[in-house]
Amino acid sequence: MTENVARRGFLLGGAVVGAGALVTACTGNEPQAAVSSPAPAATEGNDVPGEKVVIGFSAPAADHGWIAAIAKNAEATAKRYGDVEFRPVQPTNDVNQQISAVESLIAAKVNALVILPNDGQQLNQIARRASDAGIPVVNLDRVFPDKLSYRTWIGGDNYGMGVAAGHYIGAALKEKNVADPVIVEIQGIATLPLTQDRSKGFADALKTYGFRVTAQQDAQFTVETGTSVASNLLQAHKKIDALWNHDDDQGVGVLAAINEAGRNEFVMVGGAGSANAMREIQKPDSVLKATVTYSPSMASSAVKLARLIAQGKGMGDLVENQVPQSITLASETITRENVERYLPLGFES
C-alpha cells in the first residue's frame, strides 16, 4: 500500500477528507464497489466552479480491497466537479506499464497528475519528468524520494499506525497484568519502507510498556499468504498474548487460520480499517478487538488538491495562499466502542 512517510510534520487529519462518504470495494481479481451515499453538489468555498482542468490519474491494479477503494474514491470525487475532466489510465501492477501510462498523460498535457506509484523509487524519474514539464504532481501514498518530482504528497501515517497498534496492545496486556507476553506481528511486504515504518512505530510503542515483538513475518498483502503465515505462527507458538496484523485485506486469511486452529487466547489488532474487520470487531467472541486506520479517503483528497493546484487556489480553511507540500492523515483506533461511527466509512476486503 504506501512508502516512507518521513514528512509527517504537517498533519491535518481529516482537513481535506474526500467525497463525503468513502467508497467500499472488495478484494480479489474482480473487485466490486459502491458509494455508500451520494456526495452533495460542490457549491461553497474551494468547491466554487473555476477554470476547467484535466486531471490525470494512475494507480496500481485494483486486485486488493484498499487499492480498489482508492480508484473508486478518486473517480467519485472528480465527478462532483463540473470543472474537472478526469482522465484515468489503465491500472497495472507492472512498473514499466505504469511508466508508459504516465508518459501518455504527460504527452496529453494534462493540467495535473495524481499518481499512486507501484514503487516510488522506480517511478520517481517519470514523475520528475512531469514536474519538469510544468505538470504538478500530487503524489498519493507511496512517496517519490525526490521532492522535485511532486508538488504535494498526501498519505497515511504508517509510523502512526504502528504506534496506535502498539499502544492498544500494550495497554490491554498491562490491564491483564501480563509480565512477559508473546507478541506476534504479521507484516505486509517486509521490504517496503511503509512496512518498516509500521514495524518501527509498533516496536517503539511497545517499548514504553516494557514489551517487545516475539516473532515477525510478512504476508505480502494477500489473503492466501495471510492464511499460510498465520498458520505457521500459530503452530510455532502454542500460546500467544497479542497479534498485530498490518493489513485488513490479508487479515481475512489471518482470521481464517485463527478460526481453523480454534485459537482465541490472544488479542488481535488489524490495520487499514476495512468494513469486514469492523464487523468482526462487533462480535463479542472475536479475537479481533481493534483496527488502526489507513483510509483510502486520501484518494478523494488527492483529486481535490490536484484541482486546487491546477486552478492556482489554496485551501480555504488555511491562511496560506497555496496548498501545503505535505499532508499526513491521522491513524485512528477503531474499537467495539466506536465502531458504529466508522463502519459506514469502511472498504470491503
UniProtKB/TrEMBL annotation:
InterPro entries in alphabetical order = Peripla_BP_I, SBP_2_dom, TAT_signal
Domain (Periplasmic binding protein) ranges: 55-313
Name the CDD domains for this protein. Answer: PBP1_ABC_sugar_binding-like
Give the Gene3D superfamilies listed for this entry. 3.40.50.2300
Major location category of this protein: other
Spell out the subcellular localization from the entry: Cell envelope
One function term, GO molecular function aspect: carbohydrate binding
**Which domain of life, per UniProt?**
Bacteria
UniProt keywords (A-Z) are: Signal
A GO CC annotation recorded here is: cell envelope
Give a yes or no for keyword Repeat in this entry.
Answer: no
Per the similarity annotation, which family is this?
Belongs to the bacterial solute-binding protein 2 family.
Q: What protein name is recorded for this chain?
A: Sugar ABC transporter substrate-binding protein
This protein's species is Spongiactinospora rosea
